[in-house]
Amino acid sequence: MNKELLTEDEHKILFLLANNYNRKDIAKKLNISYSKCRNTVNKLCEKFETDNTIICLLKAIEEGFIKL
Hints:
By secondary structure, the protein is an all-alpha fold. The chain has helices spanning 8-18, 23-30, 34-47, 53-62.
């Protein structure tokens, strides 16, 4: 997947998920609603062709979207 296909919010949320933040804490940290956070995570899972957040994170790491 092309890195440019992810929005700035999606990049931020991926990074926070990879750093053990849950959706509620991500929403607070980014000053967005919980539902926006949840919807963005769902969109990320769709983009990485999975319905599992952990698999989504693993794919993001493998494809270079997240550096640990």
